[in-house]
Specification:
Length: 259
């Protein structure tokens, strides 16, 4: 796992410029932002979420260097499919760990008229991230829990940095979708869903809240990595649990969807 000092800064790729350390690419994503999207999953994450479906993205050293020029070329070739607001999403892992390298990537995409989004847990925030936001059309902000102690139990980190990032996004009026993974017994407590809604309800930059049902699709990857999947006994959400979370969040946000 990355040392704490490394995760607090934007990590530069091994070759310093012109490359991103990536985990994988998805050419026709429909899950991470509007329309059809070219999704680049970056390597490295400061969190260790108990339910992470891609635990192999956590360690920065496991990725492969990929030339930004090649990614731009791929995105441009995909452009005819970017209808209905589609474009490029950079996800992870935690993309803001490589914010410095992402700036030229997003600059090129914007030059070519391509919509850009980042899917972030908001933990890494520095001047590179601020500059990256100048070229970012949409932020998908994953807030794992509104209570910092429970957030730490879920992710290994407290939530103050994520909330500070959210505040900055509000200050610059950055279009933002909140994402919330609903884990039975861990993040579906009604009182905390209300607290979450109360906290964010005045954020005019939030366009949508996405409830992400808990699933166990990544459990086998933990085993492959020789790690224990601690939520093995946690069931997936019932329809009633999802409906109840949707009902509560709809008291605070105009647009709530279950992904
Ligand atoms: S923030 Fe995302 S990539 Fe990182 S550990 Fe959590 S679920 Fe996995």
């Amino acid at each position: 796992m990355l040392e704490k000092t490394a995760t607090l800064e934007t990590v530069q790729t091994a070759k310093e410029t012109g490359f991103l350390k990536i985990h994988s690419i998805e050419s026709f994503g429909t899950f991470d932002g509007p329309g059809i999207r070219f999704v680049v999953f970056l390597q490295g994450c400061p969190f260790q979420c108990l339910y992470c479906s891609n635990p192999d993205t956590m360690e920065f050293k496991n990725g492969q260097d990929f030339a930004i020029d090649d990614l731009v070329d791929k995105a441009i070739r995909m452009k005819p499919y970017f209808i209905n607001g589609g474009g490029v999403t950079v996800s992870g892992g935690e993309p803001c760990m490589q914010a410095k390298s992402l700036i030229p990537f997003f600059k090129e995409l914007k030059k070519n008229g391509i919509h850009t989004a980042i899917d972030t847990n908001g933990y890494v925030f520095n001047h590179y991230v601020k500059e990256l936001l100048d070229y970012t059309d949409l932020v998908l902000l994953d807030v794992k829990h509104i209570n910092s102690e429970i957030h730490q139990k879920i992710t290994s980190r407290r939530n103050e940095k994520t909330l500070e990032t959210a505040t900055y996004l509000r200050e610059i009026n950055q279009p933002t979708w909140l994402r919330y993974v609903l884990v039975p017994g861990l993040s579906d407590q009604p009182a905390y869903l209300h607290e979450f809604g109360q906290y964010f309800k005045e954020f005019d930059n939030i366009e949508k809240l996405e409830i992400q049902p808990y699933h166990t699709l990544g459990a086998h990857k933990w085993e492959l990595l020789g790690k224990e999947y601690q939520l093995a006994d946690t069931p997936e959400n019932t329809r009633a649990q999802l409906t109840e979370a949707h009902r509560i969040f709809s008291m605070y946000f105009d647009d709530v969807v279950i992904n």
